[in-house]
Fold each of these.
Amino acid sequence: MRFNHSGIKVGRTRLEQPMMDVWSHRPQILHLALFFAAYVLGCGFAQALAIVPGITVSIWPPAGVFIATLILTSPYSWPWWVLAGCLAEMTGQILWFHSPPLAGFLIYVGNALCAIVGATLVNRAFGRPVRLETLREVLAFVVLGAGVAPLMSATVGSATLAWFGVKSQTFAGVWPLFWIGDATGILLVAPLALVVIQHWRNRTKFSAVRWVEAGSLGLIFLGLAALSLKHDFLLSAYIIMPPILWAAVRFEFKGVAVALTLLALVTMTLTISGGSQFVGDPETQRQKQVMLQLFLAISAFSALIVAAISRQHQQALLALRDREQELSQLVDMVPVHIRRLTPEGKPTFFNKRLLDFFGMSDIAQLDKPDMNRLAAAIQTLVHPDDAPRLLATVHTSLATGESFAMKYRMRRADGAYRWVDGRGEAVRDQHGAIMQWYAISIDVDDEMRAQEDLRDRERELSQLVDMVPSLLWRLSPNGEPNFFNKRTIDFLGLDVADYDKPGASRLKATLTAIIHPDDAAGMIQTLNRCLVSGEHFSMQYRLRRADGLYRWVSARAEPLRDESGHIVQWYGLAHDIDDQMRAEEALRGLAITAIALNACRSLDEVLRTITDRAREIIGAHMAVIGTTVDQRWAQAIQAVSLSQKYAAYRGFDAKPDGSGIYGLVCNLNRSLRLTEAELKDHPAWRGYGGHADQHPPLRGWLAAPLIDSNGQNIGLLQLSDKDQGEFTAEDEGIAVQLAQMASLAITEARLHDKLRLAQETLARASQAASLAELSASVAHEVNQPLAAIVANSHACQRWLTAEPPNLDRAQKTVERIIRDANSAADVVSRIRALFKQSAETRTSMPLDSVIAEALNLMAEETARRRIRLDVDVESDLPLVSLDRVQIQQVLVNLIRNGMEAMDAAANDRLLGIRTRRLGDVVQTEITDQGPGVAFSDRIFEPFFTTKGNGMGMGLAICRSIVEAHGGRLWADKNEPYGAMFAFTLPVEMNRST
Amino acid sequence: MTKRRPVVAVVDDDPRLLESLEDLLESAGYAARTFSSAHLFLVNGLSGFDALITDIGMPDMDGFELRDLVIKSRPGLPVFMITGRHEIADQSRAQGISGFFRKPFDGQLLLAAIGDALPESKHGGRT
């Protein structure tokens, strides 16, 4: 090999590969030696059993050794075994057979062919490794290995013997002996060799009983063998068969191998000792040999077949047990509770998991004396709330044969109840009859609890959604409303399904029903645009409440998108801004009204404007202003504003008599707000006078009193029959403000009237100041607050129209307007007092009381200015005819002038008042210690003033008044400093005399 | 926001009118500073104002005198005069003066006049 390996390169691949394989597969020397020894031993055994002289063998055990060896080894190693076999057989030839060497070699060639063919066929037939475990394998081995293969050796061996004429044997005569001898050798030895070699290491341990059995079997076998094979002792050698078959059944191939070995050894011993029944006279020798061969072959054959059958049976049993165990493990392993019930419903099996769950070791623990096991089990192991239902369900299924499924709670060993999903199904035989029931349950407790939690959370969320003080809704991507929160449903008072109308989309139908007709089209258009484009929706519109009222809401909607940006839902929110909207509107309305009043040319126009505006701002069908003079309705001025609903009453001008609810408001001098029901029940309400039959019912009634600057009631502003709902507190506030505007306008108008009268009187009585001059002065005094009012009104308007409206500033400005308007009224009121003059008011009285009154009026101011008074009024003054208020005004005016003149004086502020009779006049002098008077004549001209805040009218008017009384007013220097004003009033002659 | 709001000075001896004019001017986006007499206004100094509104009939120094003083030191400053005495408005010295308003005056017209006199001011107050 080395030579080839290193020297010859050509053709190396062809030849070298098998050579290399043969070399690399060379068996261990020990194995070769054992093989050699066994072969030689087999040869010796064959020689010992040779009965017929010249025919070397009756049994040829080396054939079995050879074929078994080749079966177990790789074909690549076969050349080594063939070589070893050759050496062994040649050794046998030399030791025992003494055939010519060539004949011996040829016979060996036949033997080698037999082994090679047999091993090849057997390996081909059932592949490696050969186990001889099934009947099929044993049959294949017997037929191919023990039947077919010896054909080769028998033919070659017989031909060789015949050719060489060894012991004068003929081919036909020796061939059968040769074949049976080889076959028997193979049958006897090959299984033994295979079993021994294969099971050399994994030898199973026998139990003591098995050893005893094996031992007894061995004794019986040996005894029986000795007896049966003994010459003529028993009828047949085949008596030995039962123990052999026993060994085959109980110990399978091992038993067979041992038994056949023993049989062969016993046979050999007896044959050698000549005690065998197969040893006979030369005439029967050939027949006896065949009988021996057949006996051994049949024994071996039978034992092998029985062993194979036994083995196969054992294997099947083992496999079955494995499968059962596997199934049982599976049943216990799956995370499912499994029970088996009889067709009547009695539980007969719980899997381990279920027993563990209940904390039981055996199903029989469930039994109760007076109850069947099913009922007992359910009562004990199932939650009391679920047990009756489960029992009924199972009973129904048992009765009908239908499977069942139910979720219920089972009590675990620790007492906790777990939700399970249970199902039961019947197992039927081929004819459909129920054999048993299988019921399983799966623990679904976590899922159930998760679902419960989810439901809880959903409920919480839904409560939260309902708690939000807004209207929430949800639309599908194409605008189908599919959710309204409770507040929305309460607000709209609708079931969403109510608005399903054929022919119109649900959204449009819904919106048309709930949105103010003026807003609906625009809103639907905007919303549709948003639905198409996906942009946010934001809008204000009026929504119809369940009671039919429309409320302003501010609504928003936004799409919810999925990860890919597709709109999944629309979420919308609307909140009620009606109060806010109305407050804004009302404030705007008030400001506009205030400005509009400036443009009014007459009181009638003012009142008409106020009633119209009041009706518009508050939203009522009727507004009325009724005024009184000294609480007398007969002189009332009426302004009425009526909606279209009351068009028929526009000619109605019956004056109220003040005895009803109008009178009540004026007497209380407080606003009054009544619902329709309250009005009907009100004691002061007397229907509609004589028109109750024609008058539509009033939806609410609201009145605010008109109050003049002295707090006296001068009438009321009244609204009735609100457009929507009842009058609110806000409405009342607005009415009060409008009533105040009307009050101012009326007061002012009345003062204007009186002023005009006073001016006329003054013009008649006094030539001191022209009417034009007076009016200019008065106008200035009134224009001052008016200018402020107008400027404030404009400012207010600007605050309101700003974007966004500045309501705080507007509110503040309106308050100033009211304040300034009141102040304007005050101016007028003061002027009125100055100019009031009528003959009726002249009375005869002593001047000292008038002076005392004037000083009383001035007391507070005197104290404030820290003025010291020096009053010197002569007693027993004669009566004078005078207008008390006017003379009082003159006094007040002169006293105030004097006090003001001393404002800057740091020294003693002394104001003197001295009154005395000088002939037919009463003269009063008022002296101060101020800077004095520079232009003693000019100071009496109208509008001449030395004071910052004076109107320059005081002295002019005072002179007018005094002169109107027939007196004189002048100024002079006071000694040592200051000014002195003096006036006289004529003594009433007829009284004094 | 960085742009300064025009500042208008208002001089009147009537606090109600000062208040209302301040409100009106603020509503139109101006800053207003009010003075109850010409004297106080002059003490404060003329700088920092974009226009002056003054009453005519005031003690000590009247609106005409104040106007003359102001125009001397700040010739371009727009001056608006308001009066409650219509006879003054008829006087010869008031003739031909554009910024002249009788009380009660129209707030919008006054704002418009101020807006015209301050051409550089383009703020959004005058809407």
Amino acid sequence: MQTKQANTQRILIAGFGGQGILFFGKWIAHAGALLGKQITWLPSYGPEMRGGTANCSVILSDDAIGSPIVHEPDVLIAMNLPSFLAYQPSVCAGGEILYDASLIQDTPAREDVCYRAIAATRIASDAGLDGFANMILLGAFLEDCLPLTQAQRAQVLSQVVPVHKKHLIEANMRALSLGREYAARSESKAEKTRLHPRKAG
Amino acid sequence: MIVATRPHALTTAPTHYCPGCTHGIIHRLVAEAIDALGIEGRTIGIAPVGCSVLAYNYFNLDMTVAAHGRAPAVATGLKRANPESIVFAYQGDGDLASIGMAEAVHAAARNENITVIFVNNAIYGMTGGQMAPTSLPGQVTQTSPAGRDELLCGFPVKVCEMLAQLDGPEYIARVAANSVKNVLSAKKAIEKAFRNQVEGRGFSLVEVLSSCPTNWGMTPGDALGWMDSTMIPYYPLGVYKDRSAKEAD
Amino acid sequence: MAKTVLMKGNEALAEAAIQAGCRHYFGYPITPQTEIGAYLAKRMPEVGGVFLQAESEIAAIHMVYGASCAGKRAMTSSSSPGISLKSEGLSYLAGSDLPAFVVNVQRAGPGLGGIQPAQADYFQATRGGGHGDFRNIVLAPASVQEMASLTLRGFDLADRYNMTAMILTDGTIGQMMEQVTLESAEPTAFEKPWALTGTRCEREKHVITSLYLAPDELEQKNLSRFARYARVQRAETMVETYGMEDAEICLVAYGIAARVSKNAVAAARASGIRAGLIRPITLWPFPAEALANAAEHVRQFLSVELSMGQMIQDIELAIRCRRPVSLVSRVGGMIPTPEQVLLAIERVARGEAI
């Protein structure tokens, strides 16, 4: 039943607690709302948030949303190997898996989904943006799945960054741009296409 | 010459208390304090579960009845919701020192601006004379028929000594209602516990040692004597904590 | 002025309580409802209200009792094990005919259970949840928007009928974020001539008690309380229906189970199966009439619950067992997938047993 629907995006973000998984989801949720979509955002909660695995379901839709739980994501964002392995099989055919290739060296196992490898942790570190790997991946996600204007990105950032972290907005913007650049690079796209030709949804 | 009249804060209803019980005296002392401070119109009382559950019949005040032991929590809600009111909880030893210990300790720790009148007669009266948390070592009750055995049942709880260790409370005192002299000091302590609240000083608790001739199996006179000979030595009278007196030093 | 924002269910509920004029919150920490306390700990001081972390769930509900005696809107929130502790207070509130607002963000049980979502406190909530004959108004939000709107309504219902209104939700609805439109209107004012405000030495004293030692008097108290409950049943039942115009298979679900069921009903209808959903918004009073009417044309009912089957009994009662009712459930913190529910629909559509 959770086959891909044109008017709905189901996104699952997963990784370790502390990697900014929920913030990533919150960002997409606010972006979706800004674009006039219905949204749901649902975190995993409990002890697993404290250093274990964390995941976050986000749904963006033009229609009312039923269950907020994403069982078969259209897009999986994996920030660690356990999440990559656990959720890879659940991604719906024609979907996309975006992952941090600095932390996940595993070989993609499916031919009916599109893989997007971004070495987000290394890119962040090289750019002096330690701790912003999630924003690098988010930049790539936006490039692929949720195009926003520069002004819209700035507006969402101002909504989701808490007041006491306002000084980090600049770094957030830089990380987003880096992620978008990497995603937009032709060799990256070629690599993606060569490995796993994307099937129509 | 008028020697004594009924305090206005007391109703004319005859109480249901047993002959020789000192609840009536303690009710009167509470009412006298309320009259003396002129706070009847804004005082709200909380009756406990126990012998004084019907206390609302005897005070000319807005009153409610708390679940067993919960009077300090109910008092907290009432006082926080309406800080202008004067709120007192009237509790027995089973109510305060057993089932409601947590509520009493934490209201004291928070220094809630309330007054607690704690009537300790070392027995459960309402239910027919069972062992209380304050029953004395060796005391015979329905549930300690061979006398309270400390090895089996533990030791009595000394509420004033315990609460006085907390930083929170303003005033903790123990008095007794068994002689003219003791009743006069009880009157002073109870009035102070209410005045503290009027002045916004915080949590004040007066433990009043009381008699229960019916369940102790004694005549009223013997019961008052037993308080002197046995109870008061175990529960020494006095002021255990008084922040305002300390400030005055 | 209405404002649409993204909020977690628990936070929307907390803000709605402020909008409802509640200025007294007493609670004790427990997962998964901690956002309510965290939000109100910040928000109450901003509006001159009281946030107090109590020493226990028991103390918290009796603080609510005290504040309600004073005539003020007061609330507490907790999750399943904490609600068990509050059941004493719920009974005293009912016996004293005091309004109160209580939130149960359910987690799996029994005992300490788990912290993931469940709906296994249905019996406890809808049957009163304490000793003696009494009921609570039980509201079951299925969205963040309803966490807010049913909170506003809950405070009004509690004051209108002098009883506890309880939000019965679960960890999913509490933790999820959605768009919510917060109405900022003046809260409805209710006269509370019975409140303990002090006599001012000008009126007869007020006594609030649940103690009636004379059985005939206590019987009358119970009878008049239940006459009031009957008025609640007539006037305050709320229900949403979806696809019920022609439904042969009727799902009944509330809260998160209703969200999952809606997906399943949509998928079933897309494949030509005439399925529909009845979503009770009030669990007490239970929408028995809507169920009884549906039984006229529905062949089969499915109760979709995160419990071993509790609401299913109310469905069977409501339809007087005229049609078969089957249970579709996950428990222990698991949530059925839309596929699991669809599978059940397809099986009964084929006339198979579940």
